[in-house]
Amino acid sequence: MNILVTGGAGYIGSHVVRELIGTKNNVVVFDNLQKGHRDAIKGVTFVEGDLNNKELLDKTMKKYDIDSVIHLAADSLVGESMENPSKYYTNNVCSGLNLLNSMVENNVKYIVFSSTAAVYGEPKSIPITEDNETKPTNVYGETKLMFESILKRYDEAYGIKYMSLRYFNAAGAHISGEIGEDHNPETHLIPIIMQVALGQREKIFIFGDDYDTKDGTCIRDYIHVTDLANAHILALEALESENKSNIYNLGNGEGFSVREVIDMVEKVTGKSITREVSGRRPGDPAVLIASSEKIIKELGWKPRFDSLEKIIETAWKWHSNNPKGYDE
Ligand code: UDP
User: Fold this and answer.
1) Which SUPFAM superfamilies does the UniProt entry name for this protein (predicted)?
2) Which of 143, 187, 189, 223 most suits a substitution to test ligand 1, by most atoms within 8 Å of the C-beta?
3) Which one, out of 98, 136, 157, 252, has a CA that is 20 to 30 A from the CA of 148?
């Protein structure tokens, strides 16, 4: 199989590519390098391009005789999506449509899509199962849900089969310490705490401690990026063998508050982390915890890094060995 990975040079994408290397598949990464890093995908076939460039997409599909797509290229920040919705509708929906149209025109039948827990909004019950109501509280989640609706219609009309993977909070780094999380600016909780541990930042701001949770801070379900990556391969294999679309949650099934995550970083790194409570971040739901029973049962997915401690240990290995990230 020839697989096109959009956003393959990004944080999650590069870990997906790492897991694909060594399988029977050929991998082609398509990335505009706005957030991705060339060094994260050393030795992999690479096309530098943006999904808004339909011509380049068509050319790439043909040149590499693409059979399947793993689509991760997107903007993914809750806060930014509320301040600049135009960017999110344009990049996540319009540019994504170019990809789907190119797939239709080039007879590419399978797509694994990186969706998000943000499609659920404030969930009706915890842990969240795939049949929970979808009612996003932020623009980011809304764009991902819109794309899921488009996928459903493209399946009905054009026979494109999809797997939508609704990620909870991707975290950690490859066990080798060779690839990991490097955003600029960094907005995610764990890498920001790492920056405090490394002395690159004075303190971490806790976005709200007046939520209806055990310690008042938001609760999230952190899933190791390699476990997440492996789910993409299982999803692709299932598409090829069963030719059937599906939607799966991906999380660890356990929630940790912002304070608990900070405490765990202190434990793993041995550094003390200065913290200060600031206001809530718009669009943040109080609690997001996944039920991943469906993917465990149906696809045999099995997380290896099943504790927050293990996840943070791998993150610390990456950040402490690469304090400036990929340093391009
Ligand atoms: N968070 C925080 N301070 C920060 C960054 C994040 O308190 O500097 C909180 C955020 O409000 C959320 C959790 O940490 O409840 C995880 O946020 P992140 O941005 O890592 O992921 P998201 O949940 O938005 O996908």
Assistant:
1) NAD(P)-binding Rossmann-fold domains
2) 189
3) 252
Q: Which residues contact 287 (CB under 8 A, 6 or more apart)?
A: 123, 126, 211, 213, 218, 219, 255
Q: Domain ranges in the chain?
A: 2-171+222-250, 189-220+253-327
Average pLDDT over residues 37-43: 96
What percent of the chain stands above pLDDT 70? 100
Query: What is the fold, at CATH topology level, of the domain defined by 2-171+222-250?
Result: Rossmann fold (3.40.50)
Q: Which residue's CA is the closest to the ligand 1 atom numbered 5?
A: 189
How far apart, in whole angstroms, are the C-alpha atoms of residue 74 and residue 281? 21
pLDDT digits (tens, 9 = 90+) for 167-194: 999 999 999 999 999 999 999 999 999 9
Ligand 1: centre distance to CA 301 (Å): 26
- Where is 168: in which H helix or E strand? none
Atom of ligand 1 nearest to the CA of 78: 24
Record the pTM. 0.97
> In the predicted model, is pLDDT for residue 78 greater than 70?
yes
The CATH homologous superfamily of the domain defined by 189-220+253-327: UDP-galactose 4-epimerase, domain 1 (3.90.25.10)
Minimum-distance ligand 1 atom for the alpha carbon of 280: 11
- Find the angle CA(240)-CA(150)-CA(19) to the nearest 5 degrees: 40
Q: Cα–Cα distances in Å, from 211 out to 140, 173, 190? A: 21, 29, 20
pLDDT digits (tens, 9 = 90+) for 224-243: 999 999 999 999 999 999 99
Report which ligand 1 atom has the smallest distance to the Cα of 190: 20
Cα distance between residue 310 and residue 316, in whole Å? 10
pLDDT tens digits, 245-279: 999 999 999 999 999 999 999 999 999 999 999 99
ipTM of the complex: 0.99
